[in-house]
Design goal:
The protein has 164 residues and is α/β, with parallel strands linked by helices. The chain contains five helices and six strands; from the N terminus they run E-E-E-E-H-H-E-H-H-E-H. Helix 3 packs across helix 4. The longest helix is centred in the C-terminal third of the chain and has 14 residues.
């Protein structure tokens, strides 16, 4: 494969930009203003390099997958990575508050920093930052917009009531 590759993938939450390298998936970006996110300048398009990810995302959106297995390689600080690890541990169909995530990393005073790390998550959906909500249960910022966040939370919540 060599270097960065990308593809655009149609999804129920808009066209997603997927970026990967040989070590794993680097980024998922939502469209902005109805336009797909632009790929990194050094990336080349290779749609077939994303068959595994496209398959898992498709199954997720069809309520047939609750845990992603694709190899991830996000760039981030040790603090960000600790937050993202906690996000990955939030069970499908459940939510946590920012303060619960801060407590889970052993830094209960770091609620704002957790919010910043959550917002910097380069792999939304797969690293489920949409599962983090305000302490009062309110939806808070999401890179894909609050409509997409609500869609993802509803998708997961209603999947629990569907026959398998």
């Amino acid at each position: 494969m060599g270097g960065l590759t990308f593809t655009h993938l149609d999804s129920p939450v808009g066209v997603l930009l997927l970026v990967r390298n040989e070590q794993g998936l680097r980024a998922i970006s939502f469209e902005r203003g109805g336009e797909p996110a632009p790929p990194p300048a050094a990336a080349t398009r290779d749609d077939r390099a994303f068959d595994d990810i496209a398959s898992e995302l498709g199954a997720y959106f069809q309520r047939r997958l609750t845990e992603f297995k694709v190899k991830l390689n996000p760039a981030g600080t040790p603090f960000q990575r600790s937050v993202w690890d906690v996000l990955r541990s939030i069970p499908y169909g459940e939510t946590r508050s920012y303060s619960q995530v801060a407590a889970a990393i052993g830094r209960p005073e770091a609620v704002r920093a957790v919010g910043t790390a959550n917002g910097a998550n380069p792999l939304p959906i797969i690293v489920p930052c949409h599962r983090v909500i305000g302490t009062n249960g309110s939806l808070t910022g999401f890179g894909g917009g609050l409509t997409a966040k609500r869609f993802l939370l509803d998708l997961e919540t209603y999947a629990e009531t569907l026959p398998r």
